[in-house]
């Protein structure tokens, strides 16, 4: 059936022309952003601002949930009870971060089911880093040190994101990420200071595999980042991908020296004139391959999430049935 609402053409073109009210609203919104105001869920916002936030926050939430998988893989094989308890707490925290972030994204009018559908159908992105395998116990320490370290570097500025519900979620997430980074680094220090030669070389091997993918977490170079300019202008992102990557390298090199490991980059050296480290070229072809779905573990990660969702169907149905029963009881009592 062809209805008025489905028609395309001049009507749609007309719909795209902004009304004087919209122009005024947009100007008022931009003025609030320029003044450093925070935007709340019920405030008016341009459609593109809303879409950008839903994209970024939902990708972030998916990353937290998929990020539980590579580490969850080692819970049953942690070397001591203490390490197992720490790892369990960390993986649970990641689950919690995912939930705060889905809630923040829902305030923008997109349902959790829509976001999860996008993840399960392979349409939504999540961080490239979680498509790499964790093949030894040292990987768990290195993920804490480098991956959570990169995450904090990226996420601390997000505590000042112009969209207040996201900023508020990030404050709590960052506190927990800081514990995650420290536990990873501490476990590596123990291996490097008290471990045998095989354990030390296990740490070096893990660093060799995770260093470059950790640098890729910050996203494409600024010149190739289609979203950065607008997101910076709107205060969604406060610092660019390249600036954050540089800050991460500068903070991490001294930590690597203290550990006594070598970072796998022959071009890494202190640049006196610029007051920061120079580092080698990132393999962007690898980055885009992994983002495009063809990394070492993309299929495995997605299959694990889809299976968990399908296996949990009965729990969701039971919870709904219980909620319905409670509502009926309340209605009958009223
Ligand atoms: N992986 O224009 P750009 C964690 C995509 S979780 C995959 O620069 P934007 C943790 C990007 O989405 C870590 N895709 O984009 C959890 C865009 O594609 P679309 C996750 C990437 O949004 C458990 C395209 O490339 N952190 O910390 O301005 C355990 C062009 O990029 C990646 C967050 O999500 C990537 N690495 O900037 C431990 C933080 N990079 O969407 C740790 C919040 C880029 O246009 N997100 N892409 O199709 C952000 O800060 C920004 O979204 C990004 C990208 C800096 C990641």
From TrEMBL:
Record region (Disordered): 1-20
Database matches in InterPro entries: Aromatic_CoA_ox/epox, Ferritin-like, Ferritin-like_SF, PaaA, PaaA_PaaC
GO molecular function, one term: phenylacetyl-CoA 1,2-epoxidase activity
E.C. number(s) listed in UniProt: 1.14.13.149
Cross-referenced Gene3D superfamilies: 1.20.1260.10
Keywords: Oxidoreductase
Identification of the protein by name: 1,2-phenylacetyl-CoA epoxidase subunit A
Gene: paaA
